[in-house]
């Protein structure tokens, strides 16, 4: 692996850890590559370590970083990651179904509703807590575990007690195709937004548009101050993992 390729690999990981996705990082990496080629020096000398590079890029985008939690993820990221995990698990499950049932998968009330509830249980369990915390709703995040437990009980009840008479069938390839399609949709590079060219892309030059940054919903104060302070407490405790007591102190100081 070439020297810059090693640097790029680590830089993309560091950028991803800070919530800068692949398509957002690509123009920055291209600028970095061009700078290294022009200077004729080692990328570590020309640009610093990949971690330092990622820190500088993230620091130049405070509005975008403010929407992300301590894992560098937004609520949408947690939901898409949960869906991807289900889709990946759906591939071997579909292959097992093909081996057991052949070309047609029989449908029963018990199996159909139980499967739907099982998928919902897994999605709530793996995605909802992180998504709600990233949205600044830590209390709802804790409640999502109780919701997952209730869904699990409903799943067991559906498989155990609902009718098992066959009412139809679908090709066993359908779940496999759906799982593979979801994997592709959730991993394909999104269309890159218009960005400044050259070193402006690295430095983040140019005024940010708060309407497009999506941060106005978190920073704009509502008509009632109590609601605003409650929202601030939720963001501190949920999105940024500030201990509840410390978040309370910060809100009181504000």
TrEMBL record:
* Record keywords, A-Z: Membrane, Transmembrane, Transmembrane helix
**Which parts of this chain are annotated as the region Disordered?**
196-222
Tell me where on the tree of life, at the top rank, the source sits. Answer: Bacteria
Which stretches are transmembrane? 83-105, 111-132, 144-162, 168-187
Name of the protein = Uncharacterized protein
Q: What is the lineage of its organism?
A: Bacteria, Bacillati, Actinomycetota, Actinomycetes, Micromonosporales
């Amino acid at each position: 692996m070439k020297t810059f390729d090693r640097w790029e690999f680590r830089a993309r990981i560091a950028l991803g850890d800070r919530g800068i996705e692949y398509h957002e990082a690509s123009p920055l990496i291209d600028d970095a590559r061009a700078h290294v080629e022009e200077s004729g020096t080692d990328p570590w000398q020309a640009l610093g370590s990949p971690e330092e590079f990622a820190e500088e890029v993230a620091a130049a985008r405070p509005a975008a970083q403010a929407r992300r939690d301590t894992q560098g993820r937004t609520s949408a990221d947690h939901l898409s990651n949960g869906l991807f995990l289900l889709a990946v698990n759906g591939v071997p499950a579909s292959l097992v179904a093909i081996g057991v049932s052949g070309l047609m998968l029989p449908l029963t009330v018990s199996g159909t509703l139980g499967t739907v509830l099982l998928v919902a249980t897994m999605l709530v369990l793996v995605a909802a807590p992180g998504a709600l915390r990233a949205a600044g709703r830590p209390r709802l995040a804790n409640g999502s575990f109780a919701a997952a437990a209730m869904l699990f009980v409903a799943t067991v009840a559906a498989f155990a007690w609902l009718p098992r008479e066959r009412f139809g069938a679908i090709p066993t390839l359908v779940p496999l195709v759906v799982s593979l399609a979801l994997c592709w949709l959730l991993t394909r590079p999104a269309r890159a937004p218009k960005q400044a060219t050259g070193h402006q892309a690295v430095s983040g030059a140019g005024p940010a548009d708060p309407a497009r940054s999506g941060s106005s919903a978190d920073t704009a104060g509502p008509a009632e101050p109590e609601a605003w302070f409650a929202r601030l407490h939720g963001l501190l405790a949920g999105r940024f993992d500030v201990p509840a007591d410390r978040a309370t102190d910060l809100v009181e100081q504000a």
